[in-house]
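Backbone shapes recur. Consider a single case.
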Amino acid sequence: MTTIQRFDTGPRMSQAVVHGDTIYLAGQVNKDVANVTGQTVAILKQIDDLLARAGSAKQKTLSATIYLADIKSFPDMNKAWDAWVPAGHCPARTTVEAKLAAPEYLVEITVVAGK
């Protein structure tokens, strides 16, 4: 039987769930920075930290979904993303414009990674 491990579980969700050798992260947001590039950098740091706690790293990211409050900020988000992704380890990725949970959220990123 495969065990399930949960990290930072609240009343509605867990920030990370590990099932077998797969790690699923909840959508990560950050409102401490007022621009897309800064929020993206902060979110990617959160992702690094969660993956490390779950026994993985960004090199093992399988897929990413990125939600932008305004698709015009795509180049600004990519500045931070391109600096974060290790060469040769790009995950499958989708980027869409979406209305996020709060107006101060400009970007939200969720990833699935292997152990």
